[in-house]
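cache lookup: miss for this entity combination. No prior model stored, computing from scratch. Input as submitted by user K.M.:
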Amino acid sequence: MPFFMLIFRNLLRQRIRTLLTALGISLGITTVVALGVVTHSLKATAEDILHAGGADFAIGQSGSADLSFSTLTEEQLEDVAAYPEVNHAIGVLMAFSSLGSNPYFVQLGIEPSDLEHFDVPLLEGRYLARGATDEMLLGEEGASQLDKNLGDTVELKDRTFTVVGIYRTGNVWEDGGAILPLATVQEYERKGGLMTLIYVKAKVGTDLDALTARIEEDHPELATLRTLSDYNEVDQGMQMMDAANLAISFLAVFIGGIGVMNTMVMSVMERTREFGILRAVGWRQRRVLQMVLGESVLLCLIGALIGSILAVVFTRAILIFPAVRSFLEPEYTPDVFIRGLVVGVAVALLGALYPAIRAVRLSPIQAIRYE
Amino acid sequence: MNRDRIAIDVQEVVKTYEEGRIRALSGATLQVREGEFVAITGPSGCGKSTLLHLIAALDRPDSGRIVVDGMDLAEVRDLSTYRSHRVGLVFQLHNLLPTLSASANVQIPMYEAELSLWERRAKAQRLLEAVGLGDRANTPPIKLSGGERQRVAIARALANDPPILLADEPTGNLDSKAGEMVLDLLRTIQQKRGVTLVLVSHDAQIASAAERVVRMLDGRVVDEGLSGHPAG
Ligand SMILES: Nc1ncnc2c1ncn2[C@@H]1O[C@H](COP(=O)(O)OP(=O)(O)O)[C@@H](O)[C@H]1O
Ligand SMILES: [Mg+2]
């Protein structure tokens, strides 16, 4: 019988205990993997926001605790547009309000003439007409959630808008919402002349590092946003999420480790006599160690497998909420599963260390006398 | 095998437990020749098992010397190899791992030998055939009779072809018929394979099956039984 099978057989002895322990570990792994998927996906969404409309970078108000608090003026927009390297500077006012089943329906206010330079691929219909106040472009996902088609009307903020176009950008937060004339959004949000972000498209061949550095130097009240770490300057949510993620993962590892330790201590104590026999017939301490650690690692790998499956099920399940669907598209990258696996093995080794040392230290004579 | 060579030489061995309060052996001396079948008898608690365990290097004596095949056990570095290859052990009870088949049990000591999976399996099969259990290779201990279990334990003790076999009350838990069979098997192995066999039993009748009977009392060997030995 291969050594591996010996390890496997030992786990099968107490099937219920093995299963329950694996389930306990799996909950920790589920947490780690699901949080990993969610964080990763939210970061992807954040990156999408920074490069909406095909922009090279975005500009917000520096020091905003939350992106929606960022306010920029028309003068600031003109200042940015005045840089010779800037091809287009497009101001966007973001608003969120409850609409239909979605409590965070995203509204992007854009000057209709700017849509020529802001990439929004239309599936059908046309762009907003210049000067129009009651027209709306609806994202594909938003349209399906609201059950609206081209030409239908949508009630929003006590106004009636006509859907003149349906678009798909591939970004969940845009596709779940709508694009409206800037002036209209400014009016109903009572933010006359204000914007949330400025999207910048630079001329071809521009050194973006130099340009963003110069803008920030000339205008300390502006924060240029190209990467996720820039994003932290205008929104602390991401940092808090990373910290929470780490803390919860540690907790999950700790709880899992205690469960594994409990099971392995019991399992080693029950088999004291067997360990004595194994040592008496010549098994080395190293082999006993390998067996006990092997059992623990295998147990945790089973837990990690169950946990990863549960994490996928869980992250798919939360998508039934339209609010979640409008800014989260779960991405299952290998690294989150690898992290789950690493956590599983760490839990296994941590939890099995003490019982394994106990098993190895048993003197064969003591173990054989044990009755 | 050389009948005149000393296989096991136990000299003035003392072994105490619980910080000296229990004196299990107090100067035991014994010599066993290569290929010999020796039985050790004596009342319960006189130190028979302790002596056997020390010869098997499961523990170290407080004082005295044990020399096996010319090796002073106090100087043996690699006790695992000694245990797996130089001696084979059969206990009275709880010998086998309950979740493993007979064959897997016999293979246990072979993990410390350089054998492939197939070699281990084939060798276990040969050994099981040698103890008359060739058709029970896949049977778990729970489905074997007491005598059959003890025969599996004997096959396991022979796994790495040790020159010495140590059996501690191997028939102690068996009815007389099964005990007889196990005893016959041990004797056959000793004769056919030429192994040195040391059998511990408090039962004088079982002991009488041996070529020589050694008597112990209060942690000492009181009679090495040499007079009756043909070569003595
Ligand atoms: N590990 C141990 N701890 C304490 N006392 C022991 C231990 N092993 C043996 N003894 C004691 O040593 C004495 C000899 O025991 P043992 O060698 O088992 O005798 P036998 O096998 O002849 O019955 C007994 O008094 C026994 O209780
Ligand atoms: Mg005894």
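stored under new cache key. Strands of chain B lie at 6-17, 22-33, 37-41, 63-68, 71-72, 87-90, 164-168, 196-200, 212-217, 220-223.
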